[in-house]
């Protein structure tokens, strides 16, 4: 008997099935549904609970707080915009017993998707007025042509994403046909669909068998059946992900030979002892995770993550030292010149006691030629730079370690360029302060080992956050805060919004804010910094800021990444509602690095307040003042931004996930990890990997983070 698996069913094209006419097949094919597997994994968008379907005249006051569904046709569509520019779309819907109104608030453009006369199903909580009239606010609406389905199918009727040329009903029929084929025991096949997990594991983790899940995801009899099915199928998707990354990792390890490193524990301990401060536990532990990787027989690929200010640079310095005494070149690439320069200065201090050549290569360094010469000659040492490090002309010949700081600022291609330009395969360390939500870490960085610094250096005081509106009294309060901090000899950052139109409008907005502060604080040294300034200008300003000569620095977001000025104790973010949540968190992290109590003001655009900014803006501001943990914030950010817009994941194949939702399925993700580790036969793992290759093709097309 041959087992039916997704892999096998994927080879059965839909047009080879009896009953799949030319027309139906070509519609499905256009939506990329070609095989039996594709159609089975075309999971319903939602279900209509038949038990909740009512005639309009059956709806009474008692239904006020429960979901009901009505099936009817649209008799009128109208759109109205209020004085406050709120858009209200109203549909009138009739069935044979009466009529209701459905209203949507906001720009949902319902009217562009539905026509009068069209039959629809409407679900929501009805508002039953005393007069007896019924209204639904923001209900869900589905086209629903086949009233006869109501009598025919189970209690839950699956609704599918729209396919041109096909109704939800014909998708339902097609799936029923497939299930009835699978249900029968053919001579050659066992009925159903083979399960990649053993009965033992299913039992242990209370999981539904796979074939039951397939049936129940489409045609559940009740909500529990649906939930069980969804859980199982989402879990499977995480298993596929895990298997893909495990395989990518082991492939990389077996195909690439690591360089030889020669350093001793006592070398390292001495180095750590001579640092200007005592490493935190976390810094110490992550340093050794990296060092252990260096001496492994395959090249390291590790991500070092740690919140802003957690002290990643010094950990990198430990690795740099180890690579240098092993005789290699080390490249450290940073996204901005200001940051490259800062690394240059702080790492110089960390490596102070040793005779290690440190070269700075930015677009504006004067002794460029000699740096280039050193790179080409293979002279051991540290090379710090911006994108300048990956220009055509540059050819490392002895690169042992490549470090990329603030890696989220670089594209995959840029990272690869740095790694691949040497004939050797260097060890890779990428660093980021953009906390990756636990749930997306797997999909984005699955092929990297992860080290986390999860504590701050001692003595840091938590930054106090304030939310000020753009109304007059609050604007004044912002200036009062400035006066407080200035009288304490502290320095202040004022960051101006990122404006989408162009860089020049960024500068314009910064210039306006700059004149305002200059006017207000005539006796203080107020300066401006923006992206159009030459490197020398920026450098000079940053140096003045570091030396404490500037009191108030107004800037565009160039300040965002990595800048370290301990005497700055007030951060003011202008038009804070326009910034992303991660960005706000990064900016807040620019202060609170010294001994003074630091504060951060999130200042809403002039004349506006929480009540008059966008919903998302308000949610972001509420989150940022409330929450200090960068990881939590980025999870919230994902929620606010909503599904499908998870940046950075599309290229690594987010679209392959059909049912698992990285935002909400963290428990399942953990479960999948445990289950994957419990699989004891290589055959089981192999089976999963084989299916993964078919079901998650994008992970194999894109290079991800390799
Ligand atoms: P990030 O992780 O944001 O890159 P940095 O490496 O820039 O952080 O470090 C932030 C600041 O904290 C720097 O001034 C650095 O010298 C300091 N620092 C780092 N580690 C420690 C420590 N263990 N004790 C005291 N200060 C530290
Ligand atoms: Mg940093």
Please name the defining characteristics of this protein.
706 residues, alpha/beta, OB fold (Dihydrolipoamide Acetyltransferase, E2P), Rossmann fold, 3 domains, 7-stranded mixed sheet, 7-stranded parallel sheet, 22 strands, globular, binds adenosine-5'-diphosphate, binds magnesium ion
Task: Walk me through this protein's architecture.
This protein is 40% helix and 17% strand. The strands form four sheets. A seven-stranded mixed sheet has the order 6-7-4-3-2-5-8, with no helix packed on it. It has three domains: 52-154, OB fold (Dihydrolipoamide Acetyltransferase, E2P) (Beta Barrel), CATH 2.40.50; 221-460 and 665-706, P-loop containing nucleotide triphosphate hydrolases (Rossmann fold); 464-627, Rossmann fold (3-Layer(aba) Sandwich), CATH 3.40.50.300. The chain is built from 25 helices and 22 strands. Strand 19, helix 19 (535-547) and strand 20 (552-555) form a beta-alpha-beta unit. The protein has 706 residues and is of the alpha/beta class. It is globular. The chain starts with 5 loop residues before the first helix and ends in a 5-residue tail after the last helix. Helix 8 (210-218) packs across helix 9, helix 9 crosses helix 24 and helix 11 runs parallel beside helix 12. The chain binds adenosine-5'-diphosphate and magnesium ion. Magnesium ion binds at residues 312-313, 405, 562.
């Amino acid at each position: 008997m041959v087992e039916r698996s997704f892999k096998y069913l994927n080879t059965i094209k839909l047009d080879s099935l009896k009953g799949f006419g030319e027309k139906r097949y070509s519609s499905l094919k256009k939506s990329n549904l070609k095989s039996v597997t594709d159609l089975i994994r075309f999971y319903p968008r939602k279900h209509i609970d038949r038990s909740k379907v009512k005639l309009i005249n059956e709806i009474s006051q008692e239904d006020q707080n429960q979901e009901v569904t009505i099936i009817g046709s649209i008799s009128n569509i109208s759109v109205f915009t209020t004085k406050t520019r709120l858009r209200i779309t109203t549909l009138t819907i009739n069935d044979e017993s009466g009529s209701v109104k459905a209203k949507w608030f906001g720009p949902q453009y319902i009217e562009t998707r539905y026509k009068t006369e069209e039959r629809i199903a409407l679900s929501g909580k009805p508002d039953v007025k005393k007069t007896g009239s019924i209204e639904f606010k923001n209900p869900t609406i589905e086209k629903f042509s086949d009233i006869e389905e109501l009598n025919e199918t189970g209690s839950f009727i699956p609704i599918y994403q729209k396919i041109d040329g096909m109704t939800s009903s014909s998708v339902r029929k097609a799936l029923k046909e497939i299930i009835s084929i699978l249900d029968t025991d053919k001579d050659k096949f066992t009925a159903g669909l083979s399960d990649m997990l053993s009965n033992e594991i299913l039992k242990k983790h209370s999981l539904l068998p796979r074939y039951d899940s397939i049936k129940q995801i489409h045609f559940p009899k009740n909500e529990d059946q649906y939930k069980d099915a969804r859980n199982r199928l989402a879990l499977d998707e995480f298993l596929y992900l895990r298997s893909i990354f495990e395989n990518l990792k082991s492939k990389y390890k077996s195909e690439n030979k690591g360089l030889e490193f020669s350093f001793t524990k006592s070398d390292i301990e001495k180095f750590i002892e001579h640092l200007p401060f005592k490493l935190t536990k976390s810094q110490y532990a992550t340093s050794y995770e990296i060092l252990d990787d260096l001496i492994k027989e395959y090249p390291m690929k590790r991500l070092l993550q740690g919140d802003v200010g957690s002290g990643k640079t010094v950990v990198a310095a430990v690795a740099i030292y180890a690579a240098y005494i092993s005789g290699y070149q080390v490249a450290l690439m940073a996204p901005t010149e200001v940051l490259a320069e800062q690394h240059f200065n702080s790492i110089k201090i960390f490596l102070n006691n040793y005779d290690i050549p440190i070269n700075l290569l930015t677009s504006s360094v004067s002794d460029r030629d000699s740096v280039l010469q050193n790179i080409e000659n293979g002279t051991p040492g540290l090379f710090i730079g911006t994108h300048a490090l990956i220009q055509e002309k540059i050819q490392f010949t002895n690169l042992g370690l490549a470090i990329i700081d603030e890696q989220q600022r670089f594209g995959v291609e840029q990272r690869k360029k740095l790694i691949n330009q040497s004939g050797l395969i260097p060890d890779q360390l990428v660093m980021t302060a953009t906390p990756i939500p636990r749930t997306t870490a797997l999909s984005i960085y699955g092929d990297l080992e992860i080290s986390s610094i999860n504590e701050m250096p001692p003595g840091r005081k938590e930054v106090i956050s304030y939310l000020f509106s753009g109304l007059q009294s609050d604007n004044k309060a912002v200036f009062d805060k400035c006066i407080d901090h200035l009288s304490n000899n502290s320095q202040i950052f004022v960051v101006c919004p990122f404006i989408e139109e162009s860089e020049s409008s960024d500068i314009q907005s910064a210039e306006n804010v700059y004149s305002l502060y200059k006017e207000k604080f005539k006796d203080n040294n107020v300066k401006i910094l923006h992206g159009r300034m030459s490197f020398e200008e920026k450098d000079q300003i940053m140096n003045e800021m570091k030396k404490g000569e500037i009191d108030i620095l107004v800037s565009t977001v160039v300040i965002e990444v990595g800048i370290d000025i301990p005497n700055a104790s007030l951060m003011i973010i202008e038009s804070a509602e326009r910034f992303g949540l991660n960005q706000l968190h990064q900016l807040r992290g620019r202060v609170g690095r010294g001994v003074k109590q630091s504060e951060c003001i999130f200042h809403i655009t002039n004349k506006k307040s929480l009540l008059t900014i966008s919903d998302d803006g308000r949610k972001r501001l509420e989150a940022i003042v409330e929450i200090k943990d960068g990881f939590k914030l980025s999870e919230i950010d994902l929620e606010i931004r909503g599904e499908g817009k998870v940046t950075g994941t599309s290229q690594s194949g987010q679209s392959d996930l059909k049912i698992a939702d990285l935002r909400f399925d963290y428990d399942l993700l953990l479960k999948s990890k445990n289950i994957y580790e419990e699989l004891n036969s290589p055959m089981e793992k192999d089976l999963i990997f084989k299916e993964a290759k078919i079901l998650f093709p994008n992970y194999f097309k894109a290079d991800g983070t390799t």
